[in-house]
Design a protein that fits this description.
87 residues, mainly alpha, two-stranded antiparallel ribbon, 37% helix, elongated
Length: 87
């Protein structure tokens, strides 16, 4: 889009250099808010209630917030440019 707007060929490194000159850093966008004290207390209570579970009990649980694993080089994540003090 930039090439079409300005009418000249611009390589990605030029854009990155200008963004860095403006004190902008490449980061992943912020997706979740930190846990509140109330959420931490509820999580602790949940864990304590299940502290005596055995393997059979845990095999019945599905966690939906597990980490991502990428086999290839592209994980399709979006990166944004922000100043160091911005979220």
């Amino acid at each position: 889009m930039i090439r079409a707007d300005v009418g000249v060929a611009i390589v990605p490194q030029t854009i990155s250099r200008h963004l860095a000159d403006a004190n902008l850093k490449s980061k992943r966008p912020f997706h979740a808010l930190p846990l509140t004290p109330e959420h931490r207390q509820l999580l602790l209570q949940w864990c304590q209630a299940r502290s005596m579970w055995n393997v059979t009990d845990w095999q019945k649980v599905v966690f939906s917030d597990e980490s991502r694993f990428v086999w290839g080089t592209d994980d399709n994540r979006v990166w944004v440019w922000r100043r160091p003090d911005e979220r």
